[in-house]
Amino acid sequence: MGAQTSPLDQYPRILSPLKIRALDFKNRLFFPSFGIDMANPDGSFSDDLRGFYEGMAESGCGFLLLGNSSVSPQSILQLQGLRMHDAHHARAISPFIEYARQLGVIAGVQLQHYGAQATTQHITSGELLSPSGLGSSVFKKMDPRYAVREMSRDDIAQVKGQFAHAASLAHAAGARLIQLQASNGYLLSSFMSRHSNRRCDEYGGTLFNRARFLIETVQGVRDAIGDNAVLSVRLGADDGIGEAGTLPTDFEHVIPALEQCGVDMLEISLGTAETAFNVGRTEEMIEKMMSVVRVIREFSSVPIGFAGLVDSLKSAEEILSSGVADFVGMGRALFADNDLIHKTLAGRDAAIFRCRWDGQCSKDKFNPKYSRVYCCVNPKYIRPT
Ligand SMILES: Cc1cc2nc3c(=O)[nH]c(=O)nc-3n(C[C@H](O)[C@H](O)[C@H](O)COP(=O)(O)O)c2cc1C
Ligand code: SF4
């Protein structure tokens, strides 16, 4: 009988550690932000949400992100979405962050302002914020009172302050990884896009003006969290509308500026609510994702990763071997089976519940029948009929 191959022989790259600032990532796999909508109605971390994230912390990944933590009470997509604008929101995540730390897993917090991609149903101001007052057709259809206004300079200063405040709350709760959601058409990325940003002041027009809001937000957040914590930006590198929107090449000089302001890692993402990338798993979509990440890699000197249609450790290992990324996320694959990593390493591939890439979990978010996100294949989260 030949010698057995160890997991380290099979997956040397994904199982290798990575150190960024004071944080030791035990491997290169992560569970990306996945707003499953199981928080308490006041946006605080619930027992159900803790149960969900414990499954992810125990999955074998090196880090995970608590998804879509809204920085403002005036920016809410679902009532049961997570929030991070009050001290009690921070207190509620603290025990889980410590639990994950004891497992050797880094639990980060993704900070979110939904901008025009939200609804007015749960806010008191009546209007959503956007760079130039342009709305999203997807959200307009869902919300009869949908209204958006152009942000004033005071609004911009207030939102930057909200991101910094939320970051300091998350940091005080023990989070040593903070991610800013600057992709998928939400507020920070909508400033980058030529389509949604038509401003004529210092926050619109040229590339640097469009990047100003993000750069200044990064500066405020870095000041709030100090030197030891790791700051990640989830960067919307291509919003799917070509030269009229955001293109990967727009970031050639923006990324070095972000790095100079203290960004330590980048997670690349594509699409907006309107252009909805990444739903079906096709070769064309996989290649599109990889080609965008390749362009951004050329501009960056910090570790870079993405989540998008990765279905197995084998695919993740191939991606890292190709040199295109330093870490790889698995969202739906780990949602479909929290134990995918352990089962693969134990040679139990046949026992894995495989994601069908049917997009049903994304649809649950907007289905009034459901108050949370379910799965078609994972018995733990099976969708009720
Ligand atoms: C149900 C669901 C919820 C999601 N919630 C978030 C979120 O809170 N924040 C975010 O940045 N991305 C979110 N995403 C996008 C994922 O982070 C990820 O980019 C996407 O699912 C592609 O990765 P995958 O193919 O590995 O699932 C969500 C995706 C799904 C399917
Ligand atoms: S609902 Fe469907 S697409 Fe979403 S994780 Fe489950 S099997 Fe995959």
Task: Please describe what this structure looks like.
The chain has 385 residues and is α/β, with parallel strands linked by helices. It has a single domain, classed as Aldolase class I (TIM Barrel), CATH 3.20.20. The chain is 34% helix and 15% strand. It has helices spanning 7-10, 47-57, 87-102, 137-142, 153-172, 187-192, 207-225, 254-260, 283-299, 313-322, 332-336, 340-345, 360-364, and strands at 18-20, 23-25, 29-31, 63-70, 106-112, 128-130, 148-150, 177-182, 230-238, 265-270, 304-307, 327-329. Helix 5 (153-172) runs parallel beside helix 7 (207-225). It starts with 6 loop residues before the first helix and ends in a 21-residue tail after the last helix. The structure holds flavin mononucleotide (FMN) and iron/sulfur cluster. Iron/sulfur cluster binds next to helix 11 and helix 13.
